[in-house]
Every structure is written in structure tokens, then in C-alpha cells.
Amino acid sequence: MLITTLHGPVSTPVFMPVGTAAAVKSLSRQDLEQVGAQIILANNYHLYLRPGSHNIKRLGGIHKFMNWPHPILTDSGGFQIQSLHPKITNEGAEFKSHIDGSTHFLTPETATQSQLDIGSDIIMAFDHSIPKNASYEYAKEAMSRTHLWLLRCIKTWKQHTSTLKLLHSPALYGIIQGGEFPDLLRESAKFVVAQDLPGIAIGGAVIGSNPRQTSETIAAVRDLLPKNLPLYAMGVGTRPSDLINVFKAGANMCDCVAPTRLARAGLLYNSESKNERIDISKSQFKLDQNPVDSQCDCTTCRDYTRAYLHHLFKSRELTYYRLASIHNLRFTFKTVSIFTQTQAV
Length: 345
Ligand SMILES: [Zn+2]
Hints:
With 345 residues, the chain is an alpha/beta fold. It has two domains: 2-256, Queuine tRNA-ribosyltransferase-like (TIM Barrel); 257-345, no CATH class. The chain contains 14 helices and 15 strands. The longest helix has 27 residues, at 318-344. The two termini are 16 Å apart. Zinc ion binds at residues 292-293, 296, 298, 300-301, 327, 330-331.
């Protein structure tokens, strides 16, 4: 599937590296292009607080601001706010900033407007993300609220897009929320599909944390979703095999902080290791002259040894973070591309 955006096409299945605050940590635009990133994700919650969505707009939009001329998707902030113990009502979510403790109130209207100001290509509806182990009653209430909020997001999005030619309008994706309950997931899927949006996402804690549960959750709704629309599984990709499983289950897009976050913690993907990664901090790598992964074609594996990366990690050299992130992201993209090729045969 080819997704068209204001900043070029995205071919699926696609993994999106996370650049929360308009930066994929330690990597430049050139690094991202070289590892194979087509589209990156930025976070509305973080950018709304700092530097401020209105300031990004004044600076010409996020693409110009961060010098990334390719597609960008912004998460609405619903998921991030959930971890701040917000006060949620049907009107919106009140939360305290993780930066300075100041109180903020995001509504479907302001969360949508903020993403429009940021200038991303794909904006996400503001949702009430359902946490792990939520009761049926909680999940049902959050689902209904997510639906009400979706209608309000659509209204704000349409007001904005009606002033622009269609070619200059960002896409809005609705989010399915139903927790771990198949009947709620199906009800939510039907509601989101009925809104006739350019893309559909599935979110909440049931997506991403456990590969089997993620696949089961997608399977519960896949037959209800139009085959010609992208399905975005939010927050999937801790292990490279998670990507294969989620794409096999029927998703076309996913994102995860894991490849870069694990890299910074010393955990580097490896195709021969039982748990798909090695811990470069271990002393067994001190004199190891092999690359991180013998099959990987990234510049880190081409030019540097495990012994050098072990040394950089132990010394907390800044160079380590870049080299490690390049490897984990390239390994991730290679996994997706091998899967795509096997599907095409
Ligand atoms: Zn590599």
C-alpha cells in the first residue's frame, strides 16, 4: 500500500522511528535517511509544552523547524497524558506538565489545532487511551468518550481543511479503543470506520506491550476495517519479530521508541541471539572484534567492532548513542524490508 502525504508517499508496511520532541535522539536527518526512515513520529504533548505548537507554526512548521522534508505523523498526546494521572472529563483532560508542574487542559479541539499548527502530515485523534488491566466498565466509558472526542476532532480538522485545497490538507486518523474486550473493540472499529477518515489506528495498552495480545486485538477487528485504508498499530516494535507479527496480523504502520531507547541502554539487535539482542555492556565484548551483527549492512556494523562499542558505552562517549541508534534502526528497517520481500514472492 502506498500512503500519499503532503511530503511524499510512504510505502507500507512501515516502521516509524520516534522523534518525540522533533528529534530522533542522537540522529541527524542524514542518519535517518541513510538507515531508511520514510516517515517519523513526533509527539503533540511534548511539542505543545515545549517549544509550543504556536511557536513551531511561527517558525514555518515542523518540517522546516527540524529540517526533515519527509512525512511526519504526530501523536495527539492522549497516551502520554495518561501516565500523568490526568483528570479526564468529557470536556477534555487536565494534567500537570512534566517540565514545570504547570496545569494544562487539552481538549479534542485544542489537541487537533495544536497538531495542525505543528504542521504534521498525519494527525491523530485525541483519545482516552485505555490502560493495562482496565475493567470492562472503565474501558466502555473510555471508548465512548474516545468516540465523542473523535467527532469533535473531525469538526476542528474539517474547519481547517475546508480553508485549504485538499492537496494541502493533512490526514486525520481515528483511533480504535476497546481495551482487551472484543465486543468493545468491534463496536469502536465500526464507529471509527463509519467516520470515513483516511486512516485508522488501534491503540491503548493492549497494543505493543505483549506481541500475542497485540495480534489477537488486531484480529478481533481486522475484518471490519476497509482493506484500502492504512491500519496503524500504535507503539509496536520492541523486538524486531514484533514487527513481523503485527504486519502479519494485518497492520500496515507501527512506531516504537524501543530501537533507539534500547540502543542507548546498551541493548543492540542481533539476529543470532536468542532474545534478538546483545547487551554490549557485558565484559565478554571487551575484546570482541566482530561487528554487532554479522548480517547487518549499517555503517556501525561496517566500520566498528563490538569491542569499540563496548568501550564507548562504558566511557559514556556521546558517539556511542549515535552509532548504537543507527544500528538498531537499520536492523529494524531491514527486518521490515525482508518481510516485505517474502510477502511479494
Ligand atoms: Zn548494524
